[in-house]
Amino acid sequence: MESINPIIFRNKNEIMDRKPALEKLGLSGDKPICLLAYNGHPGDFQNVKKTYSYLEEEDYQMVYTTNYDGGIFPVVDYFNAFDLIICGGGYNAFWETVYFDKEAIIVPTHARFEDPQIRMEAGQDFNFEENGANQLVDIILNL
User: Fold this and answer.
1) Side-chain half-sphere of 83: how many Cα atoms within 13 Å?
2) CA–CA distance from 7 to each of 26, 34, 56, 64, 122 (Å)?
3) What is the pTM of this model?
């Protein structure tokens, strides 16, 4: 058995640079930008949005997305536009913020078959440069 890094949807060179990401989102970038991307359970998005509504008063330009209302997909493509990310503690959201070294507030989602709190505690100091997806492909190609 061999351990690999977390599997991430995109590599660092596969997402937009800041300027194109800002343009596609229709943002100027003249003040800090916060992404609130939260899926969770129905109603959770509104609760998290309310909790962090004070950031607008702190002069953040807010971008909101959730799968319950279409949302931005894949949001990771736009990560370079954001100065702060608020997201759930699910596998993808958590590991993408770590891999892309984003300032983040992780809000654990209560789930039946996983405990995001464990992931957050175990992974908060884990740093990696190579995407686990690339490692997995190399292992498969070398079988």
Assistant:
1) 12
2) 30, 24, 33, 25, 16
3) 0.91
